Amino acid sequence: MRTLSTTQLSLMTMTSLVALLLATGVTWAQVNNPELEVLKQVVEELRRRDAEKQRKLEELQRQIEAMRSQLSAAEKPVAPESALEKAVQEIEPQAPAPVPTDLLSRQVGKSTFRLIDISLDALFAAGSSSEREVSIQRLEGGDHDPRKRGFTVQNVELSLAGAVDPYLTGEAYIVYLIDPKVGDTRVELEEAFFTTQSLPYGLQLKGGHFFTEFGLINPVHPHAWDWLDQPVINTRLFGPDGLRQAGVRLRWLTPLPWFSELYVGVQNANGEIAASFLSNKDFFEERPIGGRPFVSRDVRNMSDLLYSLRWENSWNPSETITTKFGLSGLFGPNATGSDGHTRIYGADLKLSWRPTTSFRGWPFFLWQSEAMGRDYVADQFSDGVIDLPRATLRDWGFYTQALYGFTYGWAAGLRYEYASGTGASVFTFDGRANDPFRDDRHRISPLLAWHPSEFSRLRLQYNYDRADHLERRDAHSVWLGVEFLYGAHPTHEDERH
């Protein structure tokens, strides 16, 4: 047996001592460093909580998918009763609606045209009035109002909308209705326009044939009205079909600290759909503004077009309240002579309330009001038989309405309207009091609405009218409106704010 030398024994002893000291130091550091132990415990706890949260979310998602698979699209949804459904409403994010499958996709040059939304929205009304039908035509002056004892086909709208390419979208709305006077079918191009999607500096350009952005009601299609008929002052200033024409409009989203948009537009000024401006002879034969004769005018230069301006602002005072305020103005030539022109101006206010715990939009409260006026500067007229001096006919009015959705599917509301003016109506009317479209008017309209589903609506409306041109000064009317929708109707720009 080999005997170790003293030197070897010494080296082995020293090596063992160093190893022992290192092991002891590590153990001592671990025992005497409580912060490290705490951090390790925190990490483990966070991992446990994250795994538990992920498990719960996956379980909720599975239950949501199971519930959705059992509920058809046209079936009336059941109000949430279980704690699970309430919890899902609180934690589930409001994801945007899925994009429908393309109905048509076709390559056009280097771009692909995709037709995304197609729908048919139909409005019908039934009812009666204390006035005879000839008087109802003047009392309910809008083409899409209930205007006949018995049944009225108010509006059947075919809508097409889609992305043309990454830069443009296109929309078209074609309307069918039955003329209540003679029963003829009428087809109208209500709107057809493009809008840009990628202009810099918050700009957007619209071009084509479209409703003029003035106030709250004029740019809105009839199926989006809360009441069955358009306000009296809108009919008086913008005619039976509202103000719309071919042209272009530029919108600017301003850099102000609140939501603020500016609209500037230029459109043609002629036709029945521009009643307060150049209009046309057929319209004046039925509704001459102020009884004045119609004078045809050519478009000589840019001053013979219609110009519009609107400033719209929105605020959210709280999570449940949204307010919107707007100012609008119009200027263009009219049909009384070469120096005749029209100015229209207005202000509007809208308030919406929806609690954070609402179910499919209910309950809710909506209040909106508009006030507007028109300066119709009529040029002097002389044809050797008739001599009329230059005159300014002023008309103004307002409406205010409130709608309360008190329980799922049901809403009740009340609207009040007033319209008046100055300046005599001549010839046929022999005074403003005899002019059904310029006399003093009051209207009160309570409303009850029921939505069986998101694809249908029934409305019951009573109108009390007091008007100077009526023989008995007042009238009572009751209308029942029915609406149904096929397809996925695109949201109009005015409905998104």
Describe the structure.
It is a single chain. With 497 residues, the chain is α+β, with helices and mostly antiparallel strands. It has one domain: Porin. The chain is 18% helix and 43% strand. It is built from 6 helices and 19 strands. It has helices at residues 6-31, 34-69, 83-91, 133-139, 232-238, 281-286, and strands spanning 104-108, 111-129, 150-163, 168-178, 185-196, 203-211, 244-253, 259-267, 306-315, 321-333, 341-353, 364-378, 381-382, 387-388, 391-407, 410-422, 441-453, 456-467, 474-487. The strands form 2 sheets. The chain has a 16-stranded antiparallel beta barrel with strand order 2-3-4-5-6-7-8-9-10-11-12-15-16-17-18-19. Strands 13-14 form a two-stranded antiparallel ribbon. β1 and β2 form a beta hairpin. It is globular, with a radius of gyration of 34 Å. The model is unreliable at 1-11, 17-32, 72-84 and 95-102 (pLDDT under 50).
List keywords for this structure.
single chain; 497 residues; alpha+beta; Porin; 16-stranded antiparallel β-barrel; two-stranded antiparallel sheet; 18% helix; 43% strand; globular; disordered N terminus
- Corresponding CATH architecture: Beta Barrel
Can you list the strand order of the major beta sheet?
2-3-4-5-6-7-8-9-10-11-12-15-16-17-18-19
Mean pLDDT over the residues = 85
What is the gyration radius calculated from CA atoms? 34 Å
Overall, the morphology is globular
Fourth-level CATH superfamily: Porin
What string, H for helix and E for strand, traces the elements in order?
HHHEEHEEEEHEEHEEEEEEEEEEE
* Uncertain regions spanning at least 5 consecutive residues: 1-11, 17-32, 72-84, 95-102
Largest pleated sheet = 16 strands, antiparallel, barrel
CATH class categorisation: Mainly Beta
Distance between the termini: 100 Å
Enter the CATH topology name. Answer: Porin
User: Tally of extended strands?
Assistant: 19
Please state the structural category: alpha+beta
Number of domains: 1
Report helical residue fraction: 10-25%
